[in-house]
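Case study B.
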Amino acid sequence: MSKLSIDEQLEIIQSGTEQIVPLDDLRRKLERAERAGQPLRVKLGVDPTAPDLHLGHAVTLRKLRQFQDCGHLVVLIIGDFTARIGDPSGRNSTRPPLSEADIEANAQTYIDQAFKILDPDKCELRRNSEWLASLNFADILSVTSKFTVAQIIERDDFDKRLKEQKPISLHELLYPVAQAYDSVAIKSDVEIGGTDQLFNLLAGRKLMEKSDIEPQVCLTLPLLVGTDGVQKMSKSYGNYVGLTDEPNDMFGKLMSVPDDLMLSYFRLATAATLAEIASIEDGLNDGSAHPGQMKRKLARDITALYYGQAAAKDAEAAFDRVFKERAMPVDIPEEAIDWQSASNDEGKIYLPALMAKLKLANSAGEARRLVDGGGVKLDGVPLAARVYELEPEALQDVVLQVGKRKFVRLV
Amino acid sequence: MSKLSIDEQLEIIQSGTEQIVPLDDLRRKLERAERAGQPLRVKLGVDPTAPDLHLGHAVTLRKLRQFQDCGHLVVLIIGDFTARIGDPSGRNSTRPPLSEADIEANAQTYIDQAFKILDPDKCELRRNSEWLASLNFADILSVTSKFTVAQIIERDDFDKRLKEQKPISLHELLYPVAQAYDSVAIKSDVEIGGTDQLFNLLAGRKLMEKSDIEPQVCLTLPLLVGTDGVQKMSKSYGNYVGLTDEPNDMFGKLMSVPDDLMLSYFRLATAATLAEIASIEDGLNDGSAHPGQMKRKLARDITALYYGQAAAKDAEAAFDRVFKERAMPVDIPEEAIDWQSASNDEGKIYLPALMAKLKLANSAGEARRLVDGGGVKLDGVPLAARVYELEPEALQDVVLQVGKRKFVRLV
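Model:
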């Protein structure tokens, strides 16, 4: 078991959490684990979709890693059962049933990324079809009898839909119950999730209590705000730092995090101890630490977590070349252009189409907007708005820069 | 198939019903049955408790018998599945799980009484565990996805409890779904029940539609008011006429039905045709029929339904002796009393205890109340209130009468 004392473990586990319900139970469980030499079972349930994991997911995964570092076992549950069924009402066409092969592939994608953070040797991987698929009607009556209708529909989204008189399919009420049953099946000591998961985690605790199983402790983590400083980090908001982003991209994106979120990122996304974070906070407050230097440390620390110190140092150097010194990076890729065929009838180059072709923009339309916004430079000089057609000579052997970080030498 | 025309069948089936939803479907089904030479499947679901069936149950059973007489098949479903489970919440101690043997015995008790009315040769007997026990979680998600939460909780009793903030266990929402699934499983053409069952019958219809099965017609029957003229007939209100009541009891209880319920009883509890009932109604309205004579006919007709004309005639004669002529019946049973041991220290008989022992009252307390109310007579003379202790000589070879119909000669 852990070489850390109970107090040391508690300090690590508590750091950066939103709620631990109830904290006393966690201490008792840690003490018992220590006495019995039996690690705690720490549950995380994940949907078997194929996500690009980002720093938002990492908040949870890093907390799990801390449990592992304290000697405990992570039980990662792939929610394959409901994914295999899809939405039986057929209403939600965006949620078709997934095949077993899809689910396995998605699970593997998740695991590959998660194991950048988790220790595979202290991880038990389960699929909830193992126990949910074989439940029969009598079992389900027994499990559902342990909840009242009011308890389930008080969940935020149900409550909202009922008040708006939007239909809720009866089977939807069974999903939180199924998730709670997962905790009964694997006898979790702790379940962790985002603050928006507290209802579901507590349902698991409640069902365990009613099933005469030692109930799990529910641990929630704050939702990480995205690099835009507004929304929670999410792929769909485009405000995320992916765990598989290249080091230079990761470093660059982190340098764009608003100053007032820096401490939150230190708390949730780095390995900094509570003492280190307190010292950074003090420094920022009394002016002894420079915000720019601190953000640089943040970007370096997080990049180093995923790629090591050397890569983080290189990324910082690359960033400095591009952003700090306003010079261009040393290793700009070259693109050989067939100038003849790229020209129009008048012998001119339509730049937006070329940018789209070179994947410097998603479409010619986006490329035009980038030009109009001053985001396109030729050898460091921004193009004026609505300048789309250029002589080939104006482009040949020129560095085309799009946004802050995309560079191509046209040859 | 039936020798009756569709219109004749419809007239019989419609008589005395509360609602047929939808009537057009019933006609279409009857026509198809006729064409295909295939009887309709008419469902009744019953709880496997051990009931004393009474005229209230008979309203439904007689309607089923009419379907049989039109050539159709009754599918009687014993709800053994939920009975085997009991109330899994454990809240309802009055509903413990029943053993298979209990359920079979109860089912047999029900069937024995029901077959006083139903034709066993046109009855398919099923148990809903046949299909419900083997449903798995995926099946249940599929079935429940066909209902919205709002549809289920609009049921009267759920709605009421929600408004009163009384807890509803989540599993209770699954029972109407299970009952609806019974219709899918046996592919019923018609389901019948009391007016209070309309919600459940319609749920069956809806689930069949959503399962691409020809939906059942829902037929409801009015609830028979008990002999007290106030509550619906029920064993727990003590206002019932049991199907196994002795002919004299049956006749006597029916003579106590309030005048204004007579037509309802003719409609729901006798074999009288619509024309006969119309004629009785006219007679009562224009004064050409005497209410007392009509009630006598009602009592005779119903008693004859269960025991034949001869027994009904005897019961009427017995009634006349007791009630009309105010004389005592001819065949009073004798009870041999051990006067010595029945006496107390003072050599007196404590009558309430004796009455309880002879089952003339449920308890000595009830016996005292009967005495106080003037309901206990010795040789036709009512005892005064609070006269409980009597000399043995005052009781020996005396007719002890309790209420209107209980007589014992003490010897």
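The interface with chain A takes residues 81-82, 84-85, 87-90, 132-138, 140-142, 144-153, 158, 162, 165, 167-174, 177-178 of chain B (CB under 8 Å). The remaining cases will be described in the next quarterly update.
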